[in-house]
Amino acid sequence: MKDNKILVNGLTSSREISRNLRNIPYSKIAETNILKLSYIPYEISRVLSVDMSISLKIFKKTKSDRGCKVNIIGFRNIDINYIAENSNKKVHELNYKIPFSAEIKYPFNDISVKNVYVPIDKISVKVLDPKQLILTSSVYIAPLIGQS
Question: What sequence ranges are listed for the domain SipL SPOCS (predicted)?
Fold first, then answer.
């Protein structure tokens, strides 16, 4: 299959990421997922666009003997628009929620987590065959903390 230009939405610029992550602890999650499409009736001919956003479910501080840790659980929300052959409809959409988790340790205990900064650094999608996609993405996870 021929690779075509795919519109990608949801990325944060590298400059903004490096500016915002300066001097704060963070974790980076880079994953490749194979998305099997056995449940869709139409085979993928071409991917038009991929949109990714982040939703956080939990960010919780836990005390430990040597400081504390912040546990973060969330989802990468992925919407993929594609063209299918043998379909009356021009454009089809797939939606995925892929979970992620991270743990960041701090050597002190007197912090409170105000929010979590989760910029999206990379998104790519490629058609492996008409019923499988490979999705590669990376996000940074940085709790925004204050003194408690």
Answer: 43-126
